[in-house]
Amino acid sequence: TGYEMNCIQTDAAISPGNSGGALVNMYGQVIGITSSKYVSSSYEGLGFAITINEARPIIEELISDGYIKGRIKIGITFMAVNEYQAQINNYPVGLLISDIDESADIANTDLQIEDFITKVNGKNVYDYDSLFSAVSDNKPGDTVTLQVYRSSTQQSATVELKLSEYSAG
Fold first, then answer.
1. What is the pTM of this model?
2. Cβ-count burial of 119 within 10 angstroms (0-12 exposed, 13-18 middle, 19+ buried)?
3. Which of 32, 68, 125, 154 sits CB 3.0–4.6 Å from 49 for a disulfide?
4. Which residues contact 143 (CB under 8 A, 6 or more apart)?
């Protein structure tokens, strides 16, 4: 399953440096938050903004609490390893762990920096989008199963992980 949101189509220029900015109407009222653009040789300048009605509850919760309650956090920083990189380095396709958040439950597992996560709940993971898709139906406290490859021993293992809640601080 994927995440759906209501968007406004716009021809305002959206680039990596200005996504997340306000989309305003001719009266200077914020009507959306720029979020993405469609890239194709058939279209030019096709951008999208999250509607202010979708964004307002999130903005208000960020102001009042400093974070969005109920969002999960796995607790790793990773580098995505694609098929080409895996082949030339003799690694598996997956997520190469470069840091582990000591405040997340993942710190209580046997996972180590330089381990590769190759599957989450039986789904292949190889970048942020595939990881998000694999965990999107979960909530904090849920347990997921990771398939892991340890580069130092060249062995695979299964790790159970309780998802943490993302919070301020």
1. 0.70
2. buried
3. 32
4. 160, 161, 162, 163
